[in-house]
Specification:
254 residues, alpha/beta, Rossmann fold, 8-stranded mixed sheet, 9 helices, 37% helix, globular
């Protein structure tokens, strides 16, 4: 995802983390299942969505990400908050050699799971104790109101999205009978004003002209929620945490 996360998008995402319940919900699930893991390799760590709370929970985390913008933000937070235990690594998966860790974590990195077989074998081999993968749990899920915006702006539907079942099926073919826990979480994206919101959607949808500005502004004016002098896009998401431990991966675990 190196080319996707420019500084602008990364800063928007970083700002939204304050209103993101994923870290707390995911770690509530992951930490008790990590079988005493002390070291974590967070693949596609971004700006530290899970790496920072893992470090604050006393774990040593290698945070691997290919986006300089994301790693820069992570390093800034490490410095500001005086966080210990995180080693940021600016690199794509496979571009640098990584040593085994007690636990491997990969959250919401669809590019690595588009053809999951080899990647799953590699991370299973690197994990000493456990592996955790977080993916969308609904192929009909929306993204940034795209199901309404695509017909409005482009006169076409927003297609189905892949979800965790492809990964789970690939694991099954490898003889890894993983566990699945479905979680729900909120991610409210804040904006200073409607102009910034329009810029956000244009950036994410790849719109470079002003031809859709009027429709976008009218749509977002009705959709966004005003709160504490800010505008919020409110999103509710459903994801699957797929996990397995190395001591029992060849049999289903209760």
């Amino acid at each position: 995802m190196q080319g996707f996360w420019n500084r602008l998008k990364a800063e928007w995402y970083h700002r939204g983390l304050k209103y993101n319940t994923l870290p707390n919900i995911a770690l509530t699930c992951i930490l008790p299942k990590a079988k005493g893991a002390k070291t974590f390799l967070d693949i596609g760590a971004g700006c530290g969505t899970l790496a920072i709370p893992l470090a604050k929970a006393g774990k040593a985390v290698t945070a691997l990400d290919s986006s300089k913008a994301m790693i820069d933000l992570l390093e800034e937070d490490i410095s500001k908050q005086k966080i210990k235990g995180i080693k940021p690594v600016l690199a794509s998966w496979g571009a640098v050699k990584v040593k085994p860790h007690d636990a491997i974590l990969c959250a919401n990195v669809p590019t690595l799971l588009s053809e999951p077989g080899e990647f799953l074998r590699e991370i299973d081999g690197l994990a000493k104790k456990a592996v955790f993968i977080i993916e969308s749990a609904d192929p009909d899920s929306d993204k940034f109101y795209y199901r309404e915006l695509y017909p409005l702006l482009f006169n076409k539907p927003f297609g189905k999205r892949t979800d965790y079942l492809r990964t789970y099926t690939a694991l099954h073919s490898l003889g890894i009978f993983a566990n699945v826990e479905i979680i729900d979480y909120d991610f409210d994206q804040p904006f200073s004003n409607i102009d910034e919101a329009v810029e956000f959607w244009k950036e994410y949808m790849g719109i470079v002209t002003e031809e859709h500005d009027g429709k976008l502004r009218a749509f977002l004016g009705k959709k966004l929620v005003k709160k504490r002098g800010m505008l919020f896009a409110r999103f509710h998401k459903k994801s699957a945490i797929i996990w397995w431990t190395k001591d029992g991966k060849k049999k289903r675990q209760g």
